[in-house]
Fold this sequence. Notes:
- The structure is a homodimer.
- Chain A is of the alpha+beta class.
- Chain A has a single domain, classed as Beta-lactamase, CATH 3.40.710.
- Chain A is about 40% helix and about 20% strand.
- Chain A is built from 13 helices and twelve strands.
- In chain A, strands 1, 2, 3, 8, 9, 10, 11 and 12 form an eight-stranded antiparallel β-sheet that branches. Chain A has a two-stranded antiparallel ribbon with strand order 4-7.
- The longest helix of chain A has 15 residues, at about 215-225.
- The two termini of chain A are about 20 Å apart.
- The relative contact order of chain A is 0.18.
- Chains A and B meet through β2, β4, α5 and β5 of A and β2, β4, α5 and β5 of B.
Amino acid sequence: MGAIEMVEVLRGPLAESCHSGHAVVCDATGEIVKAWGDPHLQILPRSSAKMLQALPLVASGAADAHHLTPQRLALSCASHQGAPLHNTEVSAWLSDIGRGEDDLICGPEPSRDTSLRHQMIRDGVAPRRLMNNCSGKHTGFLTLTKHLGAGPDYCCPDHAVQRAIKDAFETVTNETTPGYGIDGCSAPNYISTMHGMARAMAFFASAETRGDTLSRAAARLTRAMIAHPDYVAGEGRACTHLMRAAKEPLALKTGAEGYFIAILPDRGLGISLKITDGATRASNAAIAALLVSLDVLDADNPEVARFLNPDVHNFAGLRIGEIRPKPGVFT
Amino acid sequence: MGAIEMVEVLRGPLAESCHSGHAVVCDATGEIVKAWGDPHLQILPRSSAKMLQALPLVASGAADAHHLTPQRLALSCASHQGAPLHNTEVSAWLSDIGRGEDDLICGPEPSRDTSLRHQMIRDGVAPRRLMNNCSGKHTGFLTLTKHLGAGPDYCCPDHAVQRAIKDAFETVTNETTPGYGIDGCSAPNYISTMHGMARAMAFFASAETRGDTLSRAAARLTRAMIAHPDYVAGEGRACTHLMRAAKEPLALKTGAEGYFIAILPDRGLGISLKITDGATRASNAAIAALLVSLDVLDADNPEVARFLNPDVHNFAGLRIGEIRPKPGVFT
Lengths: 331, 331
């Protein structure tokens, strides 16, 4: 089945642009509860795979050996803003494991915290690896690397860290991945299907009910994300605000190119969503609409509405349109 | 007919994202030569309508009365970078007509010239209206306003300037517009169909062959754009580089939300292209592919390839994928 029109962008009387996509909701047995579009579509989960990539960090015992706090576990799953909150914690974590910014393989990224980014421009300081949105994930990779006594090239697909991640990825998606792309941070990003990622998220959502090592790791990471939404993304970002606004426990994680996942521990449900064209404005609105339809989010909450149905303003500050979920799709 | 898949984004072995759209090629008689998707689709041409919005400036005699150079006519049709080249010329133009930056209704926009934008941050200078990408168009509006002795609210739909623009718009699209949206710069942006805008562009492309006032204005604006691609957009932008790289005269103008037009004076052809989801990376690649298929651009020219089929790099500078026209679409 083809993609479904999910989000439209209105300007004056016209729907000027439209975004299509796919979505799957899975239960704890891995069965599809509801789907839009094609559940068999192959996707790259991008940063929505970070919880999967953090599983070996916890399951191996590395997290305990290095006394990782819930904040640090949340950072290991984060696409953070590179705001002072995040930079300070990642920096301290690196120091605690005897590593430094130069050991991070992720490239330098300008901080997304406007005030810090402008301060760095004023100070003539170049973008830093520490502020790469993936620096928490990479510090997790370095922690596991140290725990395993492995070499420094922790992003190589045949490095012990990446092999452990691939194993965990295939276990929780219950699929054999056909391959990988290289992510924005240079780590391998394994291909899944829409169904596979929803199943993986349902594995996380139902993890508290099981006692095996991987399930306990998944439960701990989910709890850390839910406890620390500010560490998962940052002020102004959909993951952080929608997790805070949720009427029940919700772990939410965006990925590049219009991908999004949600974990609902109280229901044992996992959600996978992909906007075909890769637009974040649409994946934000669509995941919010899907969660409103499940009564996890309240459409009237301004913290939800700002992502579900945001106004569009022009340079003069005039409201000239809106982004909204296509009526009748998520019901 | 629905939208056609036009551009895909590859990462590793996977087409991670895909962009669909519509396109129409019209000849000087207004007939469709070739079409992809739905020629009847209603669209907002956004900044691709700037040549139409500049028609009354020339046709009224205001351009001659104020000795507008081809550079200034190109700026009246431009979405410029707010680079020093553009800011200096718009500033001088404003001064020549006895107006200033405060008379511009377009809101303030950060310069897209990185070096200037960073210098302004270092100097603690806020974004300025002068650097709004539409400041040349607005200075054209102010010039016509002065010529007509009209009031300062030149963006009101019932202002003499906007009424003249609507007249010209309906004449060259050969359609009665059903309404308008408000553009990023606060000017009304009239709705057309894909066919209507392609017909308007063919009007421009064939204007040299006719002697009426509107055609002479269209021909003069087209010549100005072709003579000064650096004033139409700026360094690093598709319009500027593709116009420079063309094997025959070509006027090219992007619009927000994935819209693009092309004018081919040697063939009397006009082109209208819309990417459904509004992505510029896709409208750049698709218009380049369409123009390659017409032998206006050479796919092997690096100045073409950088928009037709650009590499995608990550933060570490690794090539991790590419954007490419969907094979077999533009042939």
